[in-house]
Amino acid sequence: MVSIDPQTGQLAGASIQSQTTQALHNCASVLQAAGCTLDDVAMVTVLLAHPDDFAGMNEAYAAVFATDPPARAVARLGPELPGVLVSIALTAHVGR
């Protein structure tokens, strides 16, 4: 999931913080449609276009997963996608 704002169809800003926040919001929307919440997430994979953005991504990530965050892996995003700084994949338990 990337940080495309469903209202505008555009990326949610040029900062790693704004893109991380929107990508997580998009993930939460998909989870909600499946009857889950972020509390049901067991694993998060974060792909960064620029590894130097880790601190900014982590800041926004910690605001969403403030307590008891799920397991997480962070790696470099392979392809260069214009304007995309972060891509996030979640694994959640449905029907716990």
From TrEMBL:
GO terms for molecular function: deaminase activity. One of its GO terms (cellular component) is cytosol. InterPro entries: RutC-like_sf, YjgF/YER057c/UK114. It comes from the Bacteria. Belongs to the RutC family. This is Uncharacterized protein. It comes from Agrococcus pavilionensis RW1.
